[in-house]
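FAQ: What does the model actually see?

It sees only this:
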Amino acid sequence: MNKRGGSSVLRLAVPAKVLLQRFAFLFLILTAFGIMLLSKAETIVVEKVSTVVVDVFAPIMDVLSRPAAAVNDAVKTVRGFSDLRDDNIRLKRENERLLIWQEAARRLASQNQALQSLLDFKPGPKSQSIATRVIADSGGAFVRSVVVNAGDRDGVRKGQAAVSGVGLAGRVATAGYRSARILLITDINSRVPVLIESSRDRAILSGDNSGMPRLIFLPANASIKSGDRVVTSGHGGVFPPGLQIGRITVATDGIMRVKPNVRFDQLEFVRLIDFAAVSSVVPKEGAETPPKKAASR
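And it is asked to produce this:
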């Protein structure tokens, strides 16, 4: 019975296939003719149909376009990260260059401030000054001195006062041809005749290699107190009078000490003062006194 049913299906399928093949060409011609007629229809009808079709498929197109938009955004984000990386590298290089220029600007500003502070000190009309740079600190456990890059060729000589914009720093201990060594007022070998500005009492400022030299040979009845200003007295012809040194500080052991105005750890520039009065009082060793001119008759 199954064999009969299968044979009947085959009998029906073969004529249907032959019929389809015969009328397929005709169906295609009719379809093409219908499309041609549709293209000749009114434009408004076609636009309405197109609008309806677009409205129907718009949600589907929106859903389908979202993954593509997400992918596009992801690509843009990756490109943005790449651009940010390049910008970050460029900005880092520019930042390094700016830091170098900033450091140079700070150094120049500091040097300018130090040089401007030197201008605050106005020596007398009979004095000559030489501005020089501190190039080395030859200090140690037993010495408090600095080396400057000016020497005998620049007019530097032993005994000249070394000042900064805020006060006395020391004196020239030795002078070479291109450099000189400045003995600071904190050195143990430094002795400076000073004057207490408020009481006008005289004393000697004695260095002891500490940050604050002490006052010795004070009068027994000296009326001084902490905070009084100390200046050079001009005695002995070593320093001219009136150079600022610092302020008095009473130590815990009762010793009168002076806190210098000069910050020796930040000393970059000094001015070497050549006072004519000093040179006339203290002649050079071995120099003969020039003969006096005979009075004209």
